[in-house]
Specification:
This protein is α+β, with helices and mostly antiparallel strands. 29% of the residues lie in helices and 34% in strands. The chain has four helices and eight strands. It has a five-stranded antiparallel sheet with strand order 1-2-3-4-5. Strands 6-8-7 form a three-stranded antiparallel sheet. The protein is globular and about 40 Å long.
């Protein structure tokens, strides 16, 4: 299975060890975690663990989180995102997730990436459904998911001290 996918402006490939500094730069930035109560990754060790988990998921399932770059600058990682197995509520789903560097926001890249990932899920992985989870108060991400055809299914309140999350889904 090809681990690289492309859209009009984006190229997404399986991550590798060389992506550690980009991962920490993006996931360690408080701005990219504004709606994540866990906050940014605290250090490079935490980033290394995240990367190892992604690499393990790729080895086990032949899909996972991609390193995302612009086609016209493929050596600069601007985000990470993809499809992964995740427990959502009582069920295990294929979860669509993404996080882009702050300077890449507001350019339609998340929407373009979500289309790419969903198409990969349906066309290559032959999935029947793709889900996503987003904080109820994260209006921009909710709009992205709705633009790509996902619809809210359920509200999940994991912790009384943080906003609830909404599970979104799209079926083939």
């Amino acid at each position: 299975m090809n681990s690289t996918v492309k859209s009009e402006r984006l190229i997404a490939r399986a991550p590798d060890q060389d992506d550690l500094s980009a991962l920490f730069s993006i996931f360690g930035d408080a701005r990219t975690h504004r709606f994540n109560p866990a906050g940014p990754l605290p250090d490079e060790r935490a980033a290394r663990l995240r990367l190892e988990n992604w690499l393990s998921h790729w080895q086990q399932h032949l899909f996972g989180t991609w390193a995302i770059a612009l086609k016209d600058n493929p050596d600069r990682i601007i985000g990470f995102g993809g499809l992964s197995l995740r427990d959502l509520g009582e069920n295990r789903h294929i979860n669509l997730g993404y996080r882009f560097a702050y300077d890449s926001w507001g350019k339609g890249l998340a929407t373009e990436f979500c289309h790419l990932a969903i198409d990969f899920g349906f066309d290559t992985l032959k999935l029947k459904e793709v889900s996503a989870i987003v904080r109820e108060n994260h209006a921009a991400s909710r709009r992205v998911l709705e633009k790509v055809g996902m619809r809210p299914l359920a509200l999940v309140k994991e912790n009384p001290h943080v906003p609830a999350s909404i599970i979104y889904s799209i079926e083939k």
